């Protein structure tokens, strides 16, 4: 293989979007992806298989106490987005400035929302986001309307919206990258958590990677597990990877690390050498630190007198408490629908007998609360004997508890007298971010505002690891927008 101009490590939302944006330049681009294409199978629409771990790679991570867990981390072209809920939501404008929370102060970003807005707009159009403006009082400025109308609310979700509006709240369309008609041709199930093997979801493979691979100058190498970055003289000089039992080395003038917040940090740490004894790009000692994952709770409103006949359900969000709601007006977070929980999903997740799970699922609405997890240098990714150790220290829990209490009271008033909750644990790092934070100061950050390493002049890190804050929004659109911004910078440099 000839030496490429640009080497991209990982094909999730960051890597695939970056490749798509760079591809028209004609530069020779090689993408290394650890996994292979996700093939369709009967298990792809089987709740017991999907939620029972059939698609899990079975990886083992460690916690700070030496315990182990199997994370919901996937390795395929498209990365974790193959299984995501397709929520493509902007941060609020206020999230880009320092913002005081009940648990501390979010530091803001090294850029303003207005500076970043064109990239949000481009990412929404690229990923064909369905949404609506004018419903959400916290919605930031959009330079253009959504290109596609929102996914329609099902009748029982219209009823839920009306009951929330009757309490003076502002439920509205959840921005999602879903062609619902195409999705439902693959089976009458929600898109949230199910693998995108039959089309319908705008994920990093079906959009970003597909656009990139239309160009003959882009090559994707699958089943290529990156094991080490080689650096010398302030540059990355090579990348080692394993494929089919053999170790190979590839180099490029420009290397883009896009493996996700946990894996990118782990790769930099694992690549330590004599010149970089604490890991590559880590002169600041910030690599792996400031891990954030959101505080997320599933909230089920139950009524024996009310049936939920919806199929996909995940079309509503509510941000009345996103910027306020705490005892002193502090932000609490976002409320959105979960995908429709069926009896089979509930049985797989809870262990309850299927008949009981079906009855509970069919008599409840399924929502989730999401509150900001604040950056903390002691919440971090480290390595122990080459194994990933995730020391996640939750933050801002008081705000999340207050958000849960508000939603519980709201659902009870709306006609669901019993409200059940289950908080997501660390084995679900689907919103992982931080670990290679972005900033102007090389002493306190890993990359600059264009995602270039402060320490290694030809290394860019383009995934959720660079996010300086988690906000209370699903991170996928922000990662895609950052990738578009970084690609523009690379081509203009």
TrEMBL record:
Keywords carried by this UniProt record: FAD, Flavoprotein, Oxidoreductase
Tagged with keyword Protein biosynthesis: no
Annotated transmembrane regions: none
Keyword set includes Kinase: no
Glucose-methanol-choline oxidoreductase N-terminal domain segment(s): 194-294
Cofactor(s) the protein requires to work: FAD
A Pfam family annotated for this UniProt entry: GMC_oxred_C
Gene Ontology MF annotations: flavin adenine dinucleotide binding; oxidoreductase activity, acting on CH-OH group of donors
Domain Glucose-methanol-choline oxidoreductase C-terminal: 427-483
Family that this chain belongs to: Belongs to the GMC oxidoreductase family.
Protein name: GMC family oxidoreductase
